[in-house]
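#dry-run=false #mode=assembly
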Amino acid sequence: DTGVSQNPRHKITKRGQNVTFRCDPISEHNRLYWYRQTLGQGPEFLTYFQNEAQLEKSRLLSDRFSAERPKGSFSTLEIQRTEQGDSAMYLCASSLVSPGQATNTEAFFGQGTRLTVV
Amino acid sequence: GDSVTQMEGPVTLSEEAFLTINCTYTATGYPSLFWYVQYPGEGLQLLLKATKADDKGSNKGFEATYRKETTSFHLEKGSVQVSDSAVYFCALSPYNFNKFYFGSGTKLNVKP
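#status=ok
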């Protein structure tokens, strides 16, 4: 396992089109996160999954955004009716959290999918 | 709410200079603190972490100490190299929550 994999690496789309990104986490990791990063800013939390359950969504995640993690393995992030403001780097991360774990664990990040909406 | 503030860049240093990148945080409870690094064209990589007050994280010559009294986690390196040129992000994760809040990043340029 070489780490968190994201596809595609780059996506250019016309405004109004739908796009879908895929994230394959490290195989034994039970948590998966989606972040968005715009130029000159740090990553902003979008949502996270514990296995297949989506446990939290940020207010940044409008109704046009939906994420899934069927079977608790890979995850997809779909953006419907894209807008120019959606242009950003979308980052996926994963971590392993053991039951009853009281301290935080590190998250491993993928290289991201850069979305450009024209 | 929880947040991280780090010094704005870019920071430009000559090789072998001393590096400090300031980071302060606001959080309830006892968060874990992290420094991530992003090299050009690559994803975020964990550089070091500290999970409780007075812990010192270290890696590749970089160090940061978790200071609860000043709510800080400043990154230091005694002698930077050109290969350290990257963007550095300070982050926190709330206790038992495992969501990460990132600062805006500090770009470091090291000149030979």
